[in-house]
Structures are given as structure tokens and as C-alpha cells.
UniProtKB/TrEMBL annotation:
InterPro entries: Aminotrans_3, Aminotrans_3_PPA_site, PyrdxlP-dep_Trfase, PyrdxlP-dep_Trfase_major, PyrdxlP-dep_Trfase_small. GO terms for molecular function: pyridoxal phosphate binding; transaminase activity. Its cofactor is pyridoxal 5'-phosphate. This is Aminopentol aminotransferase. Gene3D superfamilies: Aspartate Aminotransferase, domain 1 (3.90.1150.10), Type I PLP-dependent aspartate aminotransferase-like (Major domain) (3.40.640.10).
Amino acid sequence: MNQYCISRKLFERAARVIPCGIYGHTSPVFTVPGRFPYYAVAARGCRYQDPDGNWYLDFLCGYGAVLLGYGYPQVEEAAARQREKGNCMNHPAPIMVELAEKLLEVTRFGSWVVFAKNGSDVTTWAIAVARLTTGRRKVLKVAGAYHGVGAWCNPTGYGFLPEERSHVHDFRWNDLDSFRKLVEEYHGDVAAVVLCPFHHPSYGRCILPDPGFFPTVRKICRREGIVLVLDDIRAGFRLHRGGSHQWLGIEPDILCLGKALGNGYPISVAIGREELRVAASRVFLTGTYWNNAVAMAAALEMLKILEQEPVVEHVQEVGRRFCQGLRELAWRYGFDLQCSGPPSMPFATFSGDDSFFLQQEFCARVAAQGVFLHPHHNWFMSYAHRDLDIAEAFDKIEIALRQLREGLVKR
Ligand SMILES: Cc1ncc(COP(=O)(O)O)c(C=O)c1O
């Protein structure tokens, strides 16, 4: 029987009533249809189960949203306590104030916080705040960077008008000349520069910032009155417990956080400097569920845990060991596998595999053994990944590598 028999039937039903069956980033087209799990029915720690009863040792962690592990007890208890009191009410709950204060304390640069649900909500809002503050139109971003699904940055652009991104211009990561060129070309009209802490393009190796990149961008932004927005949605809390600007050693003007902030509960925030407060109070920001208190309680607990436990150190260390062990294992079977990016969220590639065919085959075989490694997206380490999990993952990955080598030899 096929490993994904029940899942595929469910997907066939879904395709009749939901566009594409599963759409967006979890669509099967982003892995290899039929060779990866489609749905999840339960999750605990660093593992989840699909409808066919298969369990996976997970290295994607809800696309980064789950930092402590699925169902982390302290976070779940804090969420449950708040749920008892109330979640969606007519007014924000007092915990919103406590969370805002905590966020300012740990991120150490801003003077206000606003709340939303998804990363896209706050990245899109941040550029509106930058435009209102500066009275300028242009937004500069890095080619290939993902900042969500807003009209200004939607990756496909389908359904949007070209005009909606006519004031958005791309420069190249780590290329200060291409950045300076845009600043000069649109001198006096650049409202914002939006950057991630490191470059993680789709289907491409991650690239860390050169030592001078952020300090120079920071300096130019200050000189030119440009708002520097750090999109820390994906990397937040896996590089530094107080936000990735502290890992980079710079202060942004607006910091966008989401994903790991709620350890799976839907919450995103933008944190900003005093100079932007007036615009922040004017650019209308709201959503029916954006004041919900349960996600705020989860986020507050998450931040407290980050203060008490060596979470960031752990994900970095476990990632380092995972990448190194994987590389050695692959090498034993004649494959040159490299991990790029920070070890807490690495992106693996086989050398010479520009088409990603080998990577897809590898990850599909690994999935068949019960380990989930995404073939085209960076992976995420969690606090729940322990030595025994890594050892088990290596045993299973080794089976996949052996099969892969034998398959290639037979061809
Ligand atoms: C860097 C970055 N920015 C923004 C977003 C959008 O976040 P969301 O999917 O929560 O809207 C993502 C999502 O992956 C992201 O990785």
C-alpha cells in the first residue's frame, strides 16, 4: 500500500472543493507531489503524524513557527489560562500591554509595538508607515527576497497591477554598489529599505551578510532619511533571543517579527522607533482577530522561556551538529552535500545539482523513512530536537543515502 494512500484520497476530495486542493507554501507542488506528506493530524515535540499514521521527525517546524517544539507545555498552559479568561473580545486584553512592554525590553531599540497575525500584515504596514513618515514613494528590497503576499512584494504578482509595485526596486544582496545606485537614482524619493537578516532566496543557497553590508546600509539610511525595515519574520529568535538586529549589531527603524514569536500561535508584531510613532498611529492597522489574547499569552510565555532557557544556543548547536553529521554521512556515500545559512535554519544543496532533482529524490527517500526535510526551503531546528532525535534522523537518512547511491549505480 502506498505510504500516502489516505492522504491522497483526502487531497483528491480537497481538489474538488478547495482551489489546488492545498495552496500557498504548503502546496504539494513545492515538494514532489505524491512523495511527501500532504496533511498533518497531530504534532508533539519535534515530530508530527500524517493521516496515514506515519510519523515524521520534523526539520521544518511549521515553516519556522515552532521554535520550542510542538505543544510546548509552558506555552500551552499560558494559552489555556488566557483562553479560560477570554480570547476574542470587544477590547484588547491587558496582556497586550504586558507583551508590548516585554517586546520593547528584549528587542532594546524601539519605543512602540503594534500587533497583527501574519508576517505579511506587518511588512506591508511597515512600508506604509515609512511612506507616510517620509512623504516618499520608493521601497528598495533585495532581488529574490520574500516579504509576504502584499501587492508590493507578492512573488507571483498574479491578480495584482504592475502599478502596485512600480515604486518597488530591487538591488542585489551584499552588493552595496547596486544599493547606492538606487539610492542615487531615486534620491529624495526613497521611503524604505526592507532587508532580512540574511538572504534566503527560494530555490537558492542562503547567503550571510558581509561584515560591512548592514552597517553601511544603516549609515546610508540615516544620512538619507530612509526608514530601515528589518524583516525578521523567518529568522526571528533563531539567531538572537532579542531579535536578529542584535545578532547583526545594528538598530533598525522598524523590526517585523512573527512566526516563532507565538510558537505556533498566530501573532506578528512591528516594533518601531519614536520618530515613526505619529505615522504608526495614523496608518490604519486592524483585523477582527488581531487583538486575540490567547496568541499574546503564548508569545509572552515564549519570551519568558527564551530568558530562562538556552533556546537560541541550543538550536544553533543542534543545527551545527546536524549539518556536520549530514555532510559526513553524505560524503560516505559519495555525495557532496553542503549546508548554507545559519546552522539553526540551514539550507542544504548537493554540489552540481542545480536542477534540485537529486535533492528532491534524497528528501523524498528521507520522507519515506520518516524524516521530513524540505527539498527547496531552508530547514528549522527547534528546542525539541535532542541528541537521540538527531541520532535517529541520521540512521534513517543513511538508509535513504544508501538507496540513492545504489539507484544511481544501477542506472
Ligand atoms: C522573511 C519573511 N517575511 C515575511 C513572511 C510572510 O510571513 P507570513 O507567511 O506569516 O505572512 C515570510 C514567510 O515565510 C518570510 O519568510
